[in-house]
Amino acid sequence: MKFEAVLFDLDGTLLDTIEDLTDSMNEALKGLGFPGHDSEACKMFVGDGVETFALRALPKNRRDEATVAKCVADMRREYSKRWAQKTRPYDGIPELLDRLTSHHIKMSILSNKPDDSTREMVAELLSKWPFDPVVGARPTVPKKPDPTMAIQIAQQLQVEPKNFLYLGDTGTDMKTARDSGMFALGALWGFRTAEELMANGAKALVEHPREVLQLL
Hints:
This protein has helices at 18-32, 39-45, 50-57, 65-82, 93-102, 115-125, 148-157, 171-180, 194-199, 212-215; strands spanning 5-8, 15-16, 88-89, 106-114, 131-137, 164-168, 183-187, 204-206. By secondary structure, the chain is an alpha/beta fold.
């Protein structure tokens, strides 16, 4: 196979999390007296960490530090209650992961979701497959699109970045792949558009998980 390892984004790539994220943010906004958003709008807000999600979801005139912090805290509380209510792997993802596993392709996950939430979600919904490492956002490491953690994962697995396929659904993912020296593959079943993915460095796009195997 062309690649020795695959680095996956989580939300919008492996798991369809948008409904639980939207519901949680809307409860937080409601508690603050602000209007909510539909899931299509929230697809454009997520991907860069919960702080940025809150900043984008709040009214433009209420994005002061204190309000953002309150929204973040409330959203995290609400999400802890409902993160598994509607979230499921995308169609075709289990089959893709089965095939990669059978071909002994190393698989890892890098998310901008908080590290504890990332690990909990993978343990609950993706435990059938051998992801190692599973890494979420940590205070000591810059979030994607900074390539630091992607490069560290490559070093940990002793695989050259050029031999990694990076599958993600946002411009943030494509920048991370590009700047870490990995092959940037855009998932069109996720949260963002083909135009965004291509503008940020995608080398190829796939409309269904089964198409990933053609590149491997």
